[in-house]
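Intended use. Records like the one below are meant for learning the mapping from a protein sequence to its folded structure. Do not use them to infer anything beyond what is encoded.
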Amino acid sequence: MEESFVFQWSVIRSLLSILQWWAFNVTVIIVNKWIFQKLDFKFPLSVSCVHFICSSIGAYVVIKLLKLKPLITVDPEDRWRRIFPMSFVFCINIVLGNVSLRYIPVSFMQTIKSFTPATTVVLQWLVWRKYFDWRIWASLIPIVGGILLTSVTELSFNMFGFCAALFGCLATSTKTILAESLLHGYKFDSINTVYYMAPFATMILALPAMLLEGNGILEWLNTHPYPWSALIIIFSSGVLAFCLNFSIFYVIHSTTAVTFNVAGNLKVAVAVLVSWLIFRNPISYLNSVGCTVTLVGCTFYGYVRHKLSQQPQVPGTPRTPRTPRTPRSKMELLPLVNDKLEDKV
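Structure written out for the chain above:
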């Protein structure tokens, strides 16, 4: 009886963790799109900077004041030698995600972000010459095919937004690959990752945001009919972005790798549906087919990674490297917002 109760509670806890992750994730995506489209606040660098500031404060409160998570101590030298380069790529990843959201619909942006497994595998193969089983390469075919079909049939296609989302995938892959080499020895969870990286990212982004968008923000403040209400929404998106990070930590520790992968892809489908209900961006039949093929491909990719990770290592065979699709340790470099591990809004 007691074992049955423990099992039921475990299932309920996993379900609740996934639902609250979905809720924060979809809310952050929709709020950010609302900021760019409805509030006419077309300043992605500043929105990203607000997210970094709120996340820095939130991580400090959780670790230092509330002590909900123990602080992972990092040598001062390693902060600059290891964490700063990661923060720079982290910053680029977040900014590109917000830039793409400004120019393309949520559905298209989320589908392109699903291309991250392919860019990760290709980068590791090209740059690090890492071996991958043929089944990994085969699992990428529906992802690539779905992305191509979605891009060709996208009714609201914008080349600048498309390129920003695509380079965002490359930045996410680079961040993940660098994590393996730069952060070995540090078992970072999502909150400690934000604690160390968000202040660096704020420092990197603050000056470019002021120089490139400062005058535009001042003009927006003077012309917007309700600037203070709009600013509350903008800063709320930063708070929600940090809450999303916190929610990811519980999802990782409450679910298995396969469940996490499937939930991540279903979350993209939920985000696409909710964004369409709110913004009513036109979606063609072939476009929806391409999006579905991509998500099915991502799920299949995660399943293949999981099955290969369960196989015993044969002596003399190259080990297939881990990818962010199947997290199996606490060393996760999680973005400030969206989606599966690579998502950022």
